[in-house]
Specification:
two-stranded antiparallel ribbon; about 350 residues; two-stranded antiparallel sheet
Length: about 350
């Protein structure tokens, strides 16, 4: 039976909860405004005191980058608001505030926000969380040109786009992913030495040309084709099957194997149940009459003229010998995502 004379004393800002039975209260995390207050408190408590207008500028920049981060977090990963009271995350957030307060570089600010949003998705201390924390410290030490180098090296050496099926799509891919960086990349040895110093990568003894990268991932775009009789001459039992052969992209009077690279072709042939003999012969035909590296370069430049500078810088700088560390990959990945909006999860490369 209820006691109608129940009374409660509630402090300022508290909420009174009253019921006939047990009460279960679930903490759903901090709100947008609460996280904002925490974030700005972190900055005020930790940022060193500057004199006069400099402090006002720093405070305004900290508020600007905090708002930018919270808006992106709310759009991309609202669950991340729960990280507001985590000490390690607060430290990462302060790193972003501090670096942006110092220089106010908008592009760097956007890059740091992307890295911090990715950091908010990590629930445990694993390699990806550690790499993202380190990336937040490292990115401010790099110039726009060095950030562009990381994006281009990451794109061509470590990724491939499975949606490219013709030259129009290849050109659109260049426009979206390469064009923003094509004029920023540099040749100077000192830039690559600094990237080594900051732990973003290393200059290796060997080298790989940009033409080799493109051939490896997109060979189907750079075939010269063969006469249709070649299929029968090689004894391929499925014949001119449109599942496996299409008109040549570079010569419509000829045909080519329907694939972009050898790895995807092998999987496709297996999925379609081809005999080992047919599979071997089609793979052999895929390697027949390929463009030379000079022809690959010329084709790419004919599709998008600005690619001439990308090939030139790659071949005449340490870029051709530069491999990325996990931190370099994280920064290159974030720089691409900053501009194109969507990109595969960084966890594909760092896990």
């Amino acid at each position: 039976m209820l006691n109608k004379d129940q009374a409660q004393l509630v402090g300022d800002g508290a909420t009174a909860v009253q019921a006939a039975g047990n009460v279960s209260i679930t903490q759903v995390g901090l709100s947008y405004s609460e996280v904002r207050d925490v974030a700005l408190d972190v900055f005020r408590s930790n940022f060193y005191q500057l004199a006069g207008p400099a402090m006002e500028t720093a405070r305004a920049r900290a508020e600007e980058i905090t708002e930018s981060f919270l808006k992106k977090l709310q759009a991309d990963h609202p669950e991340g608001f729960s990280k507001g009271q985590d000490p390690d995350f607060q430290h990462a957030l302060f790193t972003v505030q501090k670096e942006y307060a110092r220089n106010g570089d908008k592009e760097l600010g956007d890059l740091l926000v992307d890295l911090l949003v990715d950091r908010s998705k990590q629930d445990q201390r694993d390699i990806l969380q550690i790499v993202l924390n380190e990336s937040l410290n490292t990115a401010p030490k790099l110039t726009d040109s060095q950030l562009a180098v990381l994006a281009i090296v990451f794109l061509f050496r470590y990724t491939q786009n499975h949606g490219i099926g013709n030259h129009a799509q290849l050109g659109a891919y260049f426009d979206k992913n390469v064009s923003p960086f094509a004029s920023k990349i540099v040749k100077g040895d000192s830039s690559y030495q600094h990237l080594e110093f900051t732990g973003c990568g290393s200059i290796q003894m060997g080298e790989i040309s940009l033409e080799q990268c493109l051939e490896s991932h997109y060979q189907g775009q750079f075939l010269k084709g063969f006469d249709i009789e070649e299929i029968a001459n090689r004894g391929i039992s499925v014949g001119h099957d449109q599942r496996f052969f299409i008109p040549c992209l570079n010569d419509t009077t000829k045909f080519q194997v329907r694939a972009n690279n050898r790895e995807s072709l092998e999987k496709y042939l297996d999925a379609n149940g081809l005999t080992p003999d047919d599979k071997s012969k089609i793979l052999g035909l895929f390697e027949h009459n390929k463009m030379s590296h000079a022809e690959i370069r010329d084709k790419c430049i004919s599709i998008r003229p600005y690619m001439a500078n990308v090939f030139d810088v790659w071949s005449d700088s340490p870029m051709k010998s530069f491999t990325l560390t996990s931190v370099g990959m994280a920064i290159g990945h974030a720089n691409l995502k900053r501009l194109i909006g969507e990109f595969a999860s960084l966890a594909i490369w760092i896990n």
